[in-house]
Specification:
The protein contains 26 helices and 19 strands. It is of the alpha/beta class. The strands form four sheets. An eight-stranded mixed sheet has the order 5-6-7-4-8-9-3-10, sandwiched between helices. Strands 11, 12, 13, 14, 15, 16 and 17 form a seven-stranded mixed sheet that branches.
């Protein structure tokens, strides 16, 4: 075959449009690819020869493995063109539940990559989610070397640094096994990078920038690859993980062409919803190593235990052992309104459209502390349908990105979408909130009284700024009690969403907040609190409940500015 006749990356179609049928029937999730068979078989032979260091009898992967992982190894290494020294598939994403020997397979694959590597002084990096798992991955790789006489002569494992040096005068190389630490990962120029648990990696400070560096290095090393082996996240996907998962699904579904092979062991959405994942018949579909490294009885026992421990534990079992994506449909102690939130989204609904189509509007705010979000909402009543229309905003101070590192990627994502403002001062947030109120007033939509509802705590600066714009405290600006005092609004919003009488713009900001919301029943009252939601934020949702208190009074618009400013106070709060 002439070099000109060899396939190029553009020709390799890695989509799998029939993936749902395949996963239900437990068929391979790797499409037919024009692999370089000699390279693929050599790599697979090396992989099968490796021994499991932590299993009784130290069986080889050939004895203990299964076809699904053998097919994956063939695809990873068989995509390398040995003539042009170019890898036809540059990225791989294997989504497989906990208990399917991910870390062990990761250690074996990075070891095979070092043996197969042809680049002198190549760097290979395995990034683990924690130091503990990095140590385990190193121990697995070092154990495989120790159990093979020829590999013991080829490699020098250094336990103190988690490094494995390939002792080759012609093609020396080095494997580094590290935890997801930006000080270690940033600036690395690895030829081969393997990430264990991408959803944990995405929580790392500036994860998106580090990912860009890793992928950028592949442009200079066409023989390299980026391989991700991960379970689903324990919370709604966010940041880099959400981006990578979205791209992988689009490639799998044929909606995007990319030099990536996604192998995603997840149930079709229609099978996962309504607790469909609890059906034992589905477990083997997403657990390719079922009854090898993880057993059906073990999963059943974990589910049985979770039924005692509560919804939160059940959600963890579903995400970790069955790859069910955590979201509005699966969230421990979820707020009931979350079940109906998505169906009430109206594409194209914006704040500007609300100004045109509503006959009255109110605004409300939930002003957090310096390490919190400032949530703000506007609720309008459509002049024809009488449905409530909703739009929300949020702001945070820049230090929040450091103080709340676990949600920093999500905040940055929302900022890029233009749905969250990251500001240097609190004054900028106040100014933005006041501008929203002025736009509602100038459109003649504020009610004659009680048009701005605020949590009475921590709002002095906002009230001062509103008064400068001739909004009066006690007349236009009213305090709205929080906690149990919002219970009626919470239940009312739930019913409006259920009946389809509340519509919103489908903002990602609110999808996130609603997904974070957890409800507590105390007596006859329902609480949706920041404390219950933990570090995951719900402030704009609380602002929505606060505004609902005002809208429940069925307000009438004041009309023009003169009417707005001259009407007497009718309601004392």
């Amino acid at each position: 075959m002439r070099t000109d006749d060899l396939p190029t990356p553009e020709v390799w179609d890695t989509s799998l449009p029939d993936w749902k049928e395949r996963i239900v029937n437990r068929r391979p999730l790797i499409p037919d690819l024009p692999l370089f068979d000699a390279v693929a078989e050599k790599a697979l032979a090396i992989f099968k020869r490796l021994r499991l260091p932590d299993v009784i009898g130290n069986p080889t992967f050939a004895e203990a493995g299964d076809d699904w992982i053998f097919d994956f190894v063939r695809a990873v290494f068989g995509s390398y063109d040995p003539v042009r020294k170019v890898r036809m598939i540059r990225e791989f994403l294997l989504l497989v539940p906990k208990g399917n020997a991910k870390t062990t397979y990761a250690a074996a694959i990075i070891l095979v990559a070092a043996i197969m590597n042809e680049r002198p002084h190549a760097e290979l990096m395995l990034i683990a989610p924690s130091q503990k798992i990095a140590k385990r991955a190193f121990s697995q790789a070092a154990g495989m070397i120790r159990l093979d006489e020829s590999l013991s002569a080829m490699f020098d494992p250094k336990a103190y640094s988690n490094e494995i040096v390939k002792l080759d005068e012609v093609v020396p190389s080095k494997i580094q096994i590290v935890s997801a630490d930006p000080s270690v990962v940033t600036g690395a120029m690895a030829t081969f990078t393997l990430i264990d648990e991408t959803h944990e990696f995405s929580k790392m400070s500036k994860a998106a920038d580090v990912f860009a560096e890793i992928k950028g290095s592949l442009g200079k090393r066409p023989d390299g690859f980026l391989l991700q082996i991960t379970t689903q996240s324990k919370a709604p996907p966010t940041g880099v993980w959400k981006s990578e998962l979205t791209i992988a699904r689009k490639v799998r579904d044929g909606e995007m062409r990319r030099s990536m092979l996604p192998v995603l062991y997840e149930l079709p959405p229609e099978m996962a919803k309504d607790d469909g994942w609890r059906d034992r018949r589905t477990w083997g579909m997403v657990n390719p190593n079922l009854n090898r490294s993880v057993t059906e009885d073990y999963i059943a026992g974990e589910i049985e235990k979770a039924e005692i421990d509560g919804p939160h534990q059940m959600a963890l079992i579903a995400s970790q052992h069955l790859n069910v994506e955590i979201g509005q449909g699966l969230n421990a102690d979820r707020w009931a309104g979350a079940l109906y939130w998505a169906k009430n989204a109206v594409p194209g609904l914006t704040f500007e459209r609300m100004l045109d189509e509503c006959d009255v509007m109110v605004a409300a705010g939930d002003v957090g502390g310096a390490d919190d979000l400032f949530g703000f909402s506007a609720i309008g009543r459509h002049r024809k349908s009488r449905n409530w229309l909703v739009w929300c905003w949020a702001w945070c101070l820049r230090p929040v990105l450091e103080l709340r590192k676990s949600i920093a990627p999500k905040l940055e994502e929302l900022a890029q979408l233009g749905q969250l403002g990251i500001t240097d001062t609190a004054a900028e947030q106040v100014e933005a909130a006041v501008e929203i109120c002025c736009r509602i007033r100038d459109a003649g939509l504020f009610p004659k009284q009680a048009g701005i509802g605020l949590d009475p705590h921590g709002v002095a600066a906002l009230v001062d700024a509103l008064e400068e714009e001739r909004f009066e405290l006690g007349k236009h600006i009213v305090p709205v009690g929080q906690g149990y005092k919002l219970s009626g609004a919470i239940k009312g919003v739930e019913r409006r969403l259920f009946d389809g009488r509340m519509k919103h713009g489908g903002q990602e900001l609110m999808t996130w907040c609603v997904g974070n919301a957890k409800a507590e029943q105390r007596g006859n009252n329902v609480y949706v609190t920041k404390e219950a939601a933990g570090v995951a934020k719900i402030d704009p949702l609380i602002a929505l409940f606060t505004g609902a208190i005002l809208m429940d009074g069925n307000p009438e618009p004041a009309g023009n500015l003169d009417d707005f400013l001259s009407d007497p106070v009718l309601v004392a709060r």
